[in-house]
Amino acid sequence: MSSYVLVLNCGSSSIKFAIVAVNNGESILSGLAENLGSDNSTLKISHAKTSTSYSLPANCKHESALSSINNILNEYQDLKQKVVAIGHRVVHGGEIFTQATLIDDEVKAAIKNTSHMAPLHNPANLSGIESAQLAFPALQHVAVFDTAFFQTMPKHAYLYALPYELYKTHGIRRYGFHGSSHEFVSTKAAELLNQPLEVSNLITAHLGNGCSITAINQGKAIDTSLGLTPLEGLVMGTRCGDLDPSIPTYMQETLGYSASKVNDLLNKSSGLLGISELSNDCRLLEEQSKNGNELAQLALEIFCYRLAKYIASYMVASGPLDALVFTGGIGENSSFIRQRTIAMLSTLNFSINEQLNEKMRFGHAGFVQQEASHKIIVIPTNEEWVIANKAAKLTLASGEQ
Ligand code: AMP
């Protein structure tokens, strides 16, 4: 009998959830509760190609939303009975969590203690965990950390060239995010290459609204572009990625911006949106770019140029490359971004097969390079499956003890 895991991703005002089949990663039922804490909280559940909307109590928070979700899941008794565990996405695990873990009081305290490094995410993740424990007391709860996959990085990759004291006393270092996605596509890439992951050297580019790139040497993450927070590195939908570290102080001291205005500007109005003055949606920018919109063209060019530079530099970290992998909404679907980025890497022996590149979109996985090129693979990610797998394994193992 196939088993299922309820995967929960709790944000400050939302809960994204899915019941995932452990054997094949299929999402059997999924849902989204939004605008929690306001008087128009909504809940939508999708199952078997139909979508049902429910209203939630006014000012409903995680606890009552999860209790409502639990009640609604009673309508899907057959499925609910096969749920063996709850897997929680937790954004920041600091240096404490190098892998997924069964949740107990000590784990919750450690997640709380890491909250200062992800103030927008960890408190919401924790509130989701506590509420889910109340709503589903009979099930084991497992925390799966976005940062854990990167705990194999060596010190020379994760330390900034700042006074060492800041690392020792305040934990200021690179942590990395999108771990479940990079883990999923690296495992899949090794399968497609027909070789063990443990001997695979890869560069995995997760390009969605948030973007990150990871160098993998012999199956282990060796470097990654997101840092202390998910702001560093590549150009993203609304986040700036790398910039001269003096720019934020310049904006504060010379332009008179407040610290929170600078923070908002870098996180919410930069990236593709900031440059194009139009949108963070890559699809729209491609469309407008074709129509001759110069800022849309510029935004996409900066996106690809930064990405190409990162790919080139990560060849230092990965060692002799087995494959470059594209994933995430943009990486999986935008043949334009892939083609333009690879064109910038022609001197490093990358070239794209245009027909294959056009074919690998909308859920198709496969190779897209020309014969003499480094291998380039498109792989649709499935972060929920990674979380479901880890939650099921830990729950099973705890039952066997
Ligand atoms: P994600 O955060 O992984 O859901 O990815 C969201 C991003 O993927 C947005 O910028 C979308 O515009 C982009 N995206 C989705 N589908 C396409 C597509 N067919 N072509 C280009 N970009 C796409």
Automatic annotation (TrEMBL):
Keywords: ATP-binding, Cytoplasm, Kinase, Magnesium, Metal-binding, Nucleotide-binding, Transferase. Catalyzes the formation of acetyl phosphate from acetate and ATP. Can also catalyze the reverse reaction. The gene is ackA. Pathway: Metabolic intermediate biosynthesis; acetyl-CoA biosynthesis; acetyl-CoA from acetate: step 1/2. Mg(2+) binds at residues 9, 383. Mg(2+). Can also accept Mn(2+). Its cofactor is Mg(2+); Mn(2+). Homodimer. Belongs to the acetokinase family. This is Acetate kinase. Substrate binds at residue 89. It is found in: Cytoplasm. The record marks 178, 239 as: Transition state stabilizer. The active site is at residue 146. Its EC number is 2.7.2.1. It comes from Agaribacter flavus.
